[in-house]
């Protein structure tokens, strides 16, 4: 995936209080993300940074 390429996804409701966003398969493959992998979420200046837990 090119660094300048933008991928747009919608936010969907999962249950009563949670929301979800689907990660595009190109990013999953590129980063080697696996099912049930733990991820860390950080908020910085109105942006969400997602990284591996380890």
Tell me what you see in this structure.
13% of the residues lie in helices and 33% in strands. The protein is globular. It starts with 11 loop residues before the first strand and ends with a strand. By secondary structure, the protein is mainly β. The strands form two sheets. The chain has a two-stranded antiparallel sheet. A two-stranded antiparallel ribbon has the order 3-4. The mean pLDDT is 92. β1 (12-14) and β2 (18-20) form a beta hairpin. The protein has a domain at 24-54. It contains one helix and four strands; from the N terminus they run ββαββ.
Round the mean pLDDT to the nearest integer and report it: 92
DSSP E strands, number = 4
Q: Total helix count?
A: 1
Q: Encode the helix/strand succession as letters.
A: EEHEE
Q: Determine the fraction of residues in helical runs and give it as a percent range.
A: 10-25%
Walk me through the topology:
Blueprint: E1 12-14, E2 18-20, H1 25-31, E3 39-44, E4 47-52
Antiparallel strand pairs: 1-2, 3-4
């Amino acid at each position: 995936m090119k660094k300048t390429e933008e991928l747009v996804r919608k936010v969907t409701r999962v249950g009563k209080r949670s929301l979800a966003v689907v990660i595009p398969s190109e990013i999953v493959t590129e980063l080697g993300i696996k099912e049930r992998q733990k991820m860390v979420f950080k908020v910085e200046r109105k942006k969400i940074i997602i990284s591996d837990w380890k």
